[in-house]
Amino acid sequence: IPKRLRIKRGLTLIYSMQLHGSSLSTFYERSTAGYGNAQILVIRDTDDNIFGAFTSEPFRKNSGFYGNGETFLWKIEPSIEKTNRLKLYLWKQTNYFFINSTNDYVSVGSGGGKFGLWFDQQMLHGRSQVCETFRNDVLSTSEEFQILDIELWAF
Known about the structure:
By secondary structure, the protein is mainly beta.
């Protein structure tokens, strides 16, 4: 998390599929409703993996890429010791393909026809691939995954 945000107290849940339904338009509306620019996207898939992204600006319908080098992907890695480990994938300065969000999908990280994190307009199906922006691992068990829940938290 950027230093300028570390002293802020508390996060606010601004979107949850469980509370607000699986609506991309509601996701965008709540993301841009003034709760805070810096946001953490949290996805839980049907294999119980938890992963997501940090963005320093809200998700919004856009016709191209936006965001900056503060954006990163993350995942929680279970370990043999039964303690979870947070793994971060920071910007590799290879491109500026941070966030792309349209009527049809949301993606974070891209390059070479692959997406670091992508989900469809129904917010049911997702994809995670190694991408040039973050050189991340696949965030889920496999590249294609089914979404169980999405939350968006604001600073």
